[in-house]
From TrEMBL:
Species of the source: Nocardiopsis kunsanensis
HAMAP family: CobQ (MF_00028)
Highest taxon of source: Bacteria
Protein name as annotated: Cobyric acid synthase
Name of the gene this protein is made from: cobQ
Residues of the CobQ/CobB/MinD/ParA nucleotide binding domain: 12-241
Length: 505
């Protein structure tokens, strides 16, 4: 254990389950503390997600980090950097992930070498935490999954392994909306060994809907049974919507509040690829009045769409085969034949081309190739070198910017026009730039060109700031921020009782 408290303080936000609300609590605390003038940084030792972002590394080069930690850095009013998410695992299959270490490719990791293959990652992750703690007043660290995954505890460096390394107090978040929250919180602590339990002073309850007085007896019993505090209960709020780490909440990523009744509503269908990546590319479309954004996985889902988006993919060849197996390739051709617009982003753009070849075995076996959909005159070759960039330029008469994260190298033919690092032909558009639709001017120009929509005045960056402010306000109102800040600065209090002492281990 590193018990050096002369450096900046730290607090670990763990979860009784996946999707319990660790990201929400971490982000809200970052914004609340930043408002108080605390120099705060977010941190997640290891993030498993295909939702990533480009930032600048310590050497000034473009680097990659998890999208959730990038947003948390915005909440903390800190510059995003790879140390905030030192290990990013991007699943390509159910058993193998592409590893990104401190912003740059670090090979693949398979389920068969999980514990052995992560040892060097753990060392680098803890060093990154120590670096942040030396430069910030407080580091709010987010755990991954649940700390009670006892089958993984020996190699853990994200949850209690991190807490033990830094001597860091840990609060466990429980999702009451799912039910069973009291058992989940008690059981999370009870399954841990005594040294881990000693670092957990209490809990946060998340996603509560209902009358607080009805909940109070349960909270009091939980405190009595565990000898630990409940630091507050965050209410359910439909306005809380953050760039998430994975596709768990894709079905809920709808922003229509019913205010489009009577309007000329256009339907935007986003193809839900099995290995979809950077699906936050369409978040800004979801905020546009008069657009109904849905995720689609069948030909019927896209048949009545006014605009179809083919998003990025971590497994372009495999997802292209999936597309064909479901008849979506024919549906997309019919969509274009009817004169309706189609937008491909990164991997989705590559699928729109003539051929895709994996020369160096980045996704499949070396030399594997497949015909694309043939809607654009481009070809793609996957090579080991990875492109990370923050490009800007002009398209459709408007300023545009975005970020690039890809292995594929694009060769364009002579039949198409250039479009945001990609190509366009007629009503088919392909770009290698993620995030371009977040730019208000370009999004307005694109919707005008493709759907004939007048500029709505929607300001996506301002809307994100309002969501972060809302989250900070909810945390201030409903959590004991003073106590949590004191924990971060002073460390876990001594004398925490051990639950189920001598139990079967």
């Amino acid at each position: 254990m590193n018990g050096n408290r002369t450096r900046g303080g730290g607090l670990l936000v763990a979860g009784a389950t996946s999707d319990a609300g660790k990201s929400v609590v971490t982000t809200g605390l970052c914004r609340a503390l930043a408002r108080r003038g605390v120099r705060v940084a977010p941190y997640k030792a290891q993030n498993m997600s295909n939702n990533s972002m480009v930032c600048h590394g310590s050497d000034g080069r473009p680097a990659e980090m998890g999208r959730a930690q990038w947003v948390q850095a915005l909440a903390a009013e800190a510059s995003p950097e790879p140390a905030m998410n030192p290990v990013l695992l991007k699943p390509g299959t159910d058993r193998r992930s592409h590893a990104v270490l401190l912003g740059h490719p670090a090979g693949d990791l398979s389920s068969t070498d999980w514990e052995q293959g992560r040892r060097h990652l753990a060392k680098a992750a803890h060093a990154a935490f120590d670096d942040l703690a030396s430069r910030y007043d407080v580091v709010v660290a987010e755990g991954a999954g649940s700390p009670a995954e006892i089958n993984l505890r020996a190699g853990d460096y994200v949850n209690m392994g991190l807490a033990r390394h830094a001597g860091m107090p840990t609060v466990v978040v429980g999702d009451i909306d799912r039910g069973g929250v009291f058992a989940a919180l008690y059981g999370t602590v009870g399954l841990l060994e005594a040294a881990d339990q000693a670092l957990i002073p209490g809990f946060v309850v998340n996603k509560f809907r209902g009358e607080p007085e009805l909940l109070r007896p349960g909270l009091e019993d939980l405190e009595h049974l565990t000898g630990r505090r409940v630091y507050g209960t965050l209410p359910w709020d439909a306005g809380v919507w953050l760039d998430s780490e994975d596709a768990l909440d894709i079905a809920a990523r709808r922003t229509d509040d019913g205010g489009d009744a009577g309007r000329d509503v256009r339907r935007v269908a986003v193809v839900r690829l099995p290995r979809i990546s950077n699906f936050t590319d369409v978040d800004a479309l979801g905020l546009e009045p008069g657009l109904d954004v849905v995720f689609a996985s069948s030909p019927q889902d896209v048949s009545d769409a006014d605009l179809v988006v083919l998003p990025g993919s971590r497994a372009t060849l495999a997802d292209l085969a999936w597309l064909r197996s479901r008849g979506l390739d024919r549906a997309l051709h019919e969509h274009v034949r009817r004169g309706r617009p189609l937008l491909g982003i990164c991997g989705g753009f590559q699928m729109l081309g003539r051929t895709i070849t994996d020369t160096e075995g980045v996704e499949a076996g070396p030399g594997t190739s497949a015909e694309g959909l043939g809607l654009l005159d481009v070809s793609t070759d996957f090579t080991a070198d990875k492109t990370l960039d923050l490009p800007s330029g002009t398209a459709l008469g408007a300023p545009a910017h975005g970020y690039e994260i890809h292995h594929g190298r694009i060769t364009a033919g002579s039949g198409d026009e250039e479009f945001l690092g990609g190509a366009c032909s007629g009503n088919v558009y392909g770009t290698m730039w993620h995030g371009s639709l977040e730019g208000n001017a370009f999004r307005s120009a694109f919707l005008d060109r493709t759907l004939g929509r007048e500029p709505s005045g929607t300001d996506f960056p301002a809307a994100r700031e309002r969501r972060l402010d809302l989250l900070g306000e909810l945390v201030e109102r409903h959590l004991d921020v003073d106590a949590l800040l004191d924990l971060a600065r002073s460390g876990a209090p001594g004398g925490m009782p051990v639950l189920a002492p001598g139990g079967v281990r």
